[in-house]
Design brief:
Largest sheet of chain A: 7 strands, mixed
Oligomer: heterodimer
Strand content of chain A: over 45%
Helix content of chain B: under 10%
Strand content of chain B: over 45%
Number of helices of chain B: 0
Distance between the termini of chain B: 37 Å
Number of strands of chain B: 11
Order of helices and strands of chain B: EEEEEEEEEEE
Distance between the termini of chain A: 33 Å
Largest sheet of chain B: 6 strands, mixed
Shape of chain B: globular
Order of helices and strands of chain A: EEEEEEEEEEE
Largest interface: A-B, 20 and 26 residues
Structural class of chain B: mainly beta
Radius of gyration of chain A: 13 Å
Helix content of chain A: under 10%
Chain lengths: 113, 112
């Protein structure tokens, strides 16, 4: 496995469900990110982890809960989501000193019914 | 005012022409600037970065930066249909250097 992999690639969930998105990077990077991409909007930074510590929480609702157990893995736990949370969720990694040079995974397309 | 502004397009150019993509940003403290390409249904990939005023060339791509005017541009020479994609401009925030701020992207169409 190389690069950044995300699972699942597609997810449909009801508003009362609990699910998790998973991201794994094989690049030896020490920073990982969650971004949200919605139609007609710029990529929105949600969370940043550097050396497994959260360094950014960009005013994200508490129904999104990140977890970074080690420098290679990142999770986004989802619960009681709203239909407006439907979007493409992108995981990325970088070397800590180069936050602009991101390597993205293929994304998880989330639909909330 | 948006932090990073791009014309959404589409920008249509014929094959072989030069495509010029522009981006303006609001944070005067920003020091690092990036261009990402995103094909339809795919994730963004980094194609260029520039830190200093002036031009930076990489193959058919040239990034141009003018910090005084707060704009950054991407030129694609000898455009190919395979260059058809959305191009995202991104800027590292001057006050929060962990934060990369993206524009909404410009859709480029190169027709044969």
């Amino acid at each position: 496995e190389t690069g950044v992999t995300q699972t699942p690639r597609h997810l449909v969930m009801g508003m009362t469900n609990k699910k998790s998105l998973k991201c794994e990077q094989h690049l030896g990077h020490n920073a990982m990110y969650w971004y949200k991409q919605s139609a007609k909007k710029p990529l929105e930074l949600m969370f940043v982890y550097s050396l497994e510590e959260r360094v950014e929480n960009n005013s994200v609702p508490s129904r999104f809960s990140p977890e970074c157990p080690n420098s290679s893995h990142l999770f986004l736990h989802l619960h009681t989501l709203q239909p407006e949370d439907s979007a493409l969720y992108l995981c990325a990694s970088s070397q800590d000193s180069l936050p602009g040079e991101l390597f993205f995974g293929e994304g998880s397309r989330l639909t909330v019914l | 005012q948006k932090e990073v502004e791009q014309n959404s397009g589409p920008l249509s150019v014929p094959e072989g022409a030069i495509a010029s993509l522009n981006c303006t940003y609001s944070d005067r403290g920003s020091q690092s600037f990036f261009w990402y390409r995103q094909y339809s249904g795919k994730s963004p990939e980094l194609i260029m970065f520039i830190y200093s005023n002036g031009d930076k060339e990489d193959g058919r791509f040239t990034a141009q930066l003018n910090k005084a005017s707060q704009y950054v541009s991407l030129l694609i020479r000898d455009s190919q249909p395979s260059d058809s994609a959305t191009y995202l401009c991104a800027v590292v925030s001057g006050y929060n250097t962990d934060k990369l701020i993206f524009g909404t992207g410009t859709r480029l169409q190169v027709f044969p």
